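Q: Could you write out the predicted structure for this multi-component system? I'm mainly interested in how the pieces pack against one another.
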Amino acid sequence: MTERVYRHPLVVRITHWLVALAILVLTMSGLQIFMAHPALYASDASHFHSPVFSIFSDVDASGQAVGKVQIGRAVFTTTGLFGWTSDGMGGQGPRAFPAWATIPAYRDLADGRRWHIFFAWILGLCALAYAVWAFKLFPTKADVSELPEALKEHALPWKVKATADYNPLQKTSYFAVVFLLVPLAIVSGLALSPSFDAWAPWVPALLGGRQFARIWHFAAMFGILGFFVAHFMMVALTGFWNNLRSMISGWFVEERS
Amino acid sequence: MTLRRAHFLGLLAASSLTGCARIGTALTENETFHKVLDAPERLNLALLGAGQPLAYEYPDSAISPDFRHNGFDPPSDPQFTQWSRNGWHGYRLFVSGLVDNPTSFSVEDLRTKFTPLTQTTRHDCVEGWSVIGKWRGVRLRDVVAAAAPKSDAKFVVFRCLDDDGTGTKYYESLDMRQAAHPQALLAYDLNGELVPLKNGAPVRLRVPTQLGYKSAKHVGKIELVAALGGENGKGGYWEDQGYEWFAGI
């Protein structure tokens, strides 16, 4: 027996797709911006000789251009993907990220910033509109106690049954994205603004300084992208069209036994 | 999931990203869409650019060992070189435009005729890096006031002595309110010594509440104008290349 359930109100459906678009654009334009100085420092000012992470191009023993990624003391060769990669003009060149991963495809810090700041507003406004509704995502005591059970169930993700109501794992992960990761992305992004820092110098201080805020900004990006992968997988495995429809028209078909 | 399926999904992801990058590039080049992208700048100026909050001032222990520089080479014309060899004798900072009292100052005048101010602040480059330096100089607003601006003066334009290598000179601008910020400085010393050539000698602007490109180096002339546009372009060399005039973010 099946039943049609109105699962997502309009505000959720609209903000969901706007946020999805914003995350895509913010990631790709963010990579464009990072290419201008692809290095992270665990401090307030930059210690140029000791980045905790950097992407650069180099020349190997045979005189060949190579791309490198440095994480702490480890250096990896990443030619073709990071450091020395497609330049968006048919060739390869010294670029942190390939042209297909950035907006615009070619090197353009000014326009990368325009895209990034425009969609930062979209994300921020959607987060505000969504947050009011999303208070129902606050995990209850029951959710917390049922979390281990839900985790066990998701160990075999293709056996998970989608229900109109969110299960405790769904609630917890949506909660983490809405109330932790996206706010961290927004706050760490604001901490990079010298005008914002004049208003609230305690914000970059709390994050370990302006350069450290860049690390938090990237951590938030990785967290959100990690969520996206898991989210997409679960949507695909638990009835792709039914899930998709419920985020477009609002209606979800639930199987009742 | 079979290997073939994983391969297919990987290809799908890569090609959709390529598609997004292409669409993004095409939209960037569309004039109407670009105006939409530019829209938040006014909002940012109205919100983050409001008021006169002070940039955080650091203790001396936070000063960066080397104040990194970026941008153009210092001027290399014979006159500038001569000034630089003679301890900046002969150099004058002109203040003109919509003022009742066009005037000019030597570096020595700046040192002796105005109240000096020292600030150890962070310099944030649009590229993403930051350095901290201890600047000494005079408040921009004091120098502007010395020229007695007329009431229709709305912007302060900084005409610089350095160029991009093709002859286009660097310039920047602030509105009157930004120019009146208590930390907007015309600096002649960095970390206890004359401002080095690479950092904008003999006099550079410091605007610690905005990105580094607002802090014009090698300032030769300060011009008060009623509006930007015309020879004042979009208000700065980098603004003319598409960067925001309000560089607070």
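A: Regarding packing and overall arrangement: Chain B has a mean pLDDT of 95.
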